[in-house]
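agent> Task received from the user: take the single chain below, predict its 3D structure, and emit structure tokens. No templates, no multimer pairing.
agent> Plan: (1) validate residues, (2) run structure prediction, (3) serialize to tokens, (4) report one or two observations.
agent> Step 1 OK, no nonstandard residues flagged.
tool_call: predict_structure(input=
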Amino acid sequence: LLYMHFDRLYMINTDGTGLTEFAEAPAGEMFAEVCWNGATDKIGVRTVGSYAYESKIYLMNSFGQITETIVEDLPGTTEGPVFSVNGRKILYTHDVEEFESPDGRQLDTHIFMKDLQTGEITDLSENKPVGSNDLEPRFSSTGAHVIFTNVENDGNSPKSIFYMTLDGDNRTLLFEDAEMPEWQ
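)
tool_result: status=success, residues=184
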């Protein structure tokens, strides 16, 4: 398992033995999210700076070395990454309104899919309701769909879980008043 602790990324066996420091974040950054793809042995990490909206997404190798910046620090909040089953694509979210609030509020967050081989980026949220955020995306186990949370951007509305096809179409409500979906 990999887990984060401020500017350090640690590796530990599932039985709790073998704790080792795996990586250190770049100066002035802390780890916020990590995703490890077993098919490619690549690791995606998101780091943050002094504020949650200061985010970068990096690709690391199995030795804990950053090999590529997948998403630069863009204006607005960025979250992710999540690998596809084959490790060729990642999902991440970004507030295209470029709103930067210290409390983390987001106004128009879209789900993006980036092809790591071609660099092509697809906006999967072009058809989402205005005034809402698409968050917490995950690929389905078949790789044909994305499950995610949608919520109005007012900061206190209930969240709902939807799924859609990889082109962003066929948005379908699965559960109301639910969040943090995961395919099994």
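agent> Step 4: summary for the user.
The first strand starts at residue 2 and ends at 5.
agent> Done.
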